[in-house]
Amino acid sequence: MIPDDFKQTLLARVDIVEVVERHLRLKKAGANFVACCPFHNEKTPSFSVSPSKQFYHCFGCGAHGNAIGFLMEFSGMGYVEAIKELAGGAGLTVPNDRSESHGRPQEPGADLGDVLLRAAQYYKDELKRSERAIAYLKRRGLTGEIAARFQIGYAPDGWQNLESVFPDYRAKALTEAGLVIDNDSGKRYDRFRDRIMFPIVNPRGAVIGFGGRVLDAGEPKYLNSPETPLFEKGRELYGLFQARGALREAGRLLVVEGYMDVVALAQSGVGYAVATLGTATTPTHVQKLLRQTDELVFCFDGDDAGRRAAWRALENSLAQLTDAKRAGFLFLPQGEDPDTYVRAHGKAAFEALIAEAVPLSTFLINELTARADPRTEEGRARLLHLAKPLIEQIGAPALGLMLRRRLAEIGGIGLAELDELFGVKRVKTSRLVGMAQRAAVLTSSEVLLRAVMFKPDYAAAIDRSILDPSDLATPALTGLLDLIEASPNLDARTVAAVALEQFRDTVNAARVNAAATRTLWDESFDVTAEFEGCIGQLRQRYRQRRMDELRQKPSLSAEEQGEYRQLLSQRPGAKMPNSEPVSSV
Ligand SMILES: [Zn+2]
To answer: What single-letter DSSP state applies at residue 237?
Structure first.
């Protein structure tokens, strides 16, 4: 674990403009720098980097983050690797990193990359030598061309074959790369034996890990590299690098479950498939994929396990979707997987299935009505109860509205009633902030979040008891207040970058991003006026809330009576109360 205060120091020390400039040509545009976005295809620049907020944001695809995030996204580095790279450039040493703190200093990223590349080459060469492995791939309908495109290889049977590639078979880099395993008695052996090898590559095409599949009936059927500084399962997708061309042409990406599916689909001309690596689809996966395409189709088996996996994918997509993007679910006939289906029926038949994919909204409603019977009052109540946390995650305003409308219909209540039940105050603004949305209405916590990003000093002036507990942005705001309280050195330049780091991969990160983005590019935001206006309103609302609360009580202590009088007197133009019978409602 890298300590948080080190990350803060690091983010204060580096300059995101310099970091980005190493990879992209930036052009000055007002206070910021712009470039054509490296994360989506575009001709006019919508990728903006802010030196004053140490933050980048693409108005086209929504990519955003701090310097650490940029390196991870752009170079496909792992989290730790990105931090090390930045630290190295800033002359800082990453503390408390147990694996590195003893022994000679080294650059694990560079080392591991080289080790993995050599292993991949070895496996490729071994494939040419193995009649059995070649016969297996031929039986699965693969040509040499596709095998070469995916750099497919073969790890021969035997315990220490890699010794022939790495004379220093005891080197630490081999364990770090996940290629070998040390058993309890200290004996080292190859992780992958008698398996077809599928190299996993990052967006630059560099090998970061492997998936291995048995040829026959062995167990486990699929074996992946363990997590390493280069490879995090929850972030990586098999086949994304190879899918680039095809996805642009097709305008969509297909998410399947195994590498054989990806390869078989590519063999049949469906080149836009990717696979998760032995994990469920994560929000990071979805975010990464939606950056590349507007249409995402999840493909699962039609059995119970497939439907459960699809539901997880749905849950993890809700917060990532915008109204410009869509997701669908394709369930294959029982007993089929994409590999068998496309080989038996061909590309056209498979694409016909894709065209029939169930839209996310339909899948969501179907599943909910299957879980809670809408024919009874109790069932409808339960259905709404199940729907609430899902609806709360949706950031796309129009999609959210449609679904709420549909749920209100099913629940037999009005939309206004449903919104009240769900605590929806108003149409939520999208996380993708375009110029047209600058005038969008912000909640009070969103206004404060922005103000504190401008001036962290304001944090101390916020009385937390007046915050609106039903405002969805309040947890992000209080999180940021905690952070600022705990880190007195945070300044306006790094506060957004540090907050994003602190909240990485949480819902709060999305809120902070939205606030930071608006803060950056909205020059009309009058921070002092907005802050004071908002605090004033919150005080009034708090006053009302608290007075209602006190009025509900059967009797008030002397202290509470004093508080009530105090609150009452705060109303502009209010008469000083005498001994009003506050306890009688
Ligand atoms: Zn972009």
So the answer is: -
